[in-house]
Amino acid sequence: MKILIAVIILVVVFFQVSTIFDRPLDARVDSVARPHAFSVVGWEAGALWQAAGQLFSGDDELPDDETGQVIDYFTRARRIRILNSEIAALTAGEGDASLAALRAELDGLLEIQAASTDTVERVLSKQIETVLSEEGIYNPLTDGEFRFPTVNFILGDLPDLLVISSRDRIESVKEVILKPGLTLEVKEGLETGVDSPEVVSLVVGIGGIATYPTLVDDKATLRYTIDTIVEEWLHQYLAFKPLGFRYVLDLSGISRDYDIATMNESLAGMVSDEIGSEVYRRYYAGLAGTSAVADEAESEFDREMRETRQTVDDYLGRGEIEQAEEYMERRRQRLVTMGYNIRKLNQAYFAFHGTYADTPAFISPIGLDLQKLRDKSGSIKDFLETAAAMTDREDLAERVR
């Protein structure tokens, strides 16, 4: 059975990868982005080889203090983020003794993180699978209680994503995964090379990629990491369902459908938020260093961004593209003065963030309809299965009429 599952996963993953990266790209985008493109196939091959080695090693033993190991890991991750910021601020003073001390501390923490990453990955996988099982969510193929795909992820450096949107409407028309660690100069060069009278672009950061194993950011907070692991696993799960398969067609460029993308991303986000909340509540809530409470400033940002998105849609609906872009720049400058360092605010920004129901850039009625469907569903599993069987936006509208 394990061999069969592995073969199926390989077929699905490499089908998705090949369609995304072998399709003919617009010559201009291809010439600009290809030198910086992230090789999903290359990464996948290495990750699967690593996963196979772990599978056959028989080393499944976990430490007695599983939760403590995870908390220690993310406490160090927080310190690493702080050190990176402090080092960046002091880089100009190479001879500064404090800079050398910070780098030494950082190197030591990174070494400890590397040694403990595998354990943390296995603990979180186990905890997430436990909650999924209790909700009756096992696999997308049968009613059998076997896990497929298994919750399998790798914590590491994430690539960025080049998002390209139409100028006259907020809609992603193309995405290219980029190598991690690109400089600001390279990112802005890519955007300048892609932008035209018809499209605008933006290089954005992402929290994870639904490869198999999933690639998840190793520098995020614990709660964010749990939610991301669950959400990316749901994308794998949904790929075997009508809604998710149509999202694969959208991603591959075979059949673009922004509504399907929005439905799929929103569904995965809503379900992962519920599952992630339960995982966090059960294993980590109330423990030191694991607070996930939002502060008031985030609500302020949400209000500003929702207002911006609604006004931009009004401008674009009237065909006033230049006015919309001038307005977005004014709003970006306002947000910067409020302490939100947004490098660029354009149609591509909203095309990316606007597919996620839990972000302030999301104002689509799809989110409201999905929430209505969730309210009518007896369980999170019922909600997931009902929505996953849909094939278009009308299916959702009919369900909540």
Description:
The chain has 401 residues and is mainly α. The chain has a domain at 223-399. Helices cover 62% and strands 8% of the residues. It contains 15 helices and six strands. Helix 8 (242-252) packs across helix 9 (258-283), helix 9 (258-283) runs antiparallel to helix 14 (380-388) and helix 10 packs antiparallel against helix 11 (321-337). Mean pLDDT is 84; it is low at 1-25 and 290-298.
Fold topology:
Layout: H1 2-22, H2 27-33, H3 40-57, H4 66-90, H5 97-134, E1 153-156, E2 160-166, E3 172-178, H6 184-194, E4 199-205, E5 208-209, E6 214-217, H7 222-238, H8 242-252, H9 258-283, H10 296-317, H11 321-337, H12 347-353, H13 365-376, H14 380-388, H15 393-399
Parallel strand pairs: 1-6
Antiparallel strand pairs: 2-3, 2-4, 5-6
Helix pairs in contact: 4-5, 5-9, 7-8, 7-9, 8-9, 9-14, 10-11, 13-15
Could you provide a short overview of the structure?
Helices cover 62% and strands 8% of the residues. It has 401 residues and is mainly α.
